[in-house]
Amino acid sequence: MDRIQQSLSRSRRGILGGLRGLFSKDKGVETADLEHLEEILLSSDVGLSVTLDLVNAVERVLKKEKNVQVHRVIEVLKEEMTRRLEEVSSEPNWNPGGTTVWLLLGMNGAGKTTTVAKLAHYHQQRGKRVMLACADTFRAAATEQLSVWAERLDVSVIRQGKGSDPAAVCHDAVQSALARDMDLLLIDTAGRMHTRGDLMEELAKIHRVVARGLEGAPHECLLVIDAPTGQNAISQAQRFSDGLGVTGICLTKLDGTAKGGVVLAIAGELRIPIQWVGIGEGLEHLEPFNAAAFIQALLEEGG
Predict the structure, then answer these.
(1) How many CA atoms lie within 13 A of 213 on its CB side?
(2) What are the pLDDT digits (tens) for 192-219?
(3) What's the rounded Cα separation, in Å, for the pair 301 and 53?
(4) 153 SS3 class
(5) Strand, helix or coil at 302?
(6) For residues 116-126, b (16+ Cβ closer than 10 Å) or e, as one string?
(7) pTM, two decimal places
(8) pLDDT tens-digit profile of 173-196?
């Protein structure tokens, strides 16, 4: 909880600071203040549709109750935000009694490879046998980076030379993971623009190959998005989801942005659960997403 609090400090200052600056007056909150509330939420990248719903919820309280103060507004926002996130929350999918395969997707620079390493570390610490696969065969540096992480974590990594067929790498990785009775295979794919149809089709091919190699796989298609992209994350997630059926979001770099509200926009507009959040650079700085803890850290000071 302390780490979540620290990572959301910039986002929290933006929302709480705005609310307290707007509503810190003896007469309490009035309907005329709602336009400014809308501005505060939009500036935190909560998204237009979610913002309007939150403002409407506050307006309903203003009509029912007298002398509403800022703490009551924050209370209403916490309740509404938590409910919205919990509506689309889900636990990661596992293959009971067999090898589980998670496919990680995303744009260049979103932090996919580092997220793969953090996921591997997280599950290693909980007794899982983990294998990595590098399906980014366009950049030699990608293979090298994942190999360095694999060596540091003392896990196996399946890789081929630059220019190899990424789908062939994934086929080999699935077969190897099955043969060695691995609990979790994490596949790192090449970063790509969501607007490039040919590259998206290559991801679809990888998906098909993995599915043929193991029934029910991939058990998760996790889209890695860096939080500082804000509302641009929505269009990214939409295109990836349309083409590949994204099952969950890994939101990285939350500690470096004031746009933590994008979590609500993703959940509200796309109905895709946030499953993991990156809150720092260390291997241990990846947490399973918890809606109540996240909103508490976003709208409450202290631990």
Answers:
(1) 26
(2) 665 566 778 888 899 999 999 999 999 9
(3) 24
(4) helix
(5) coil
(6) bbbbbbbbbee
(7) 0.92
(8) 999 999 999 999 999 998 866 556
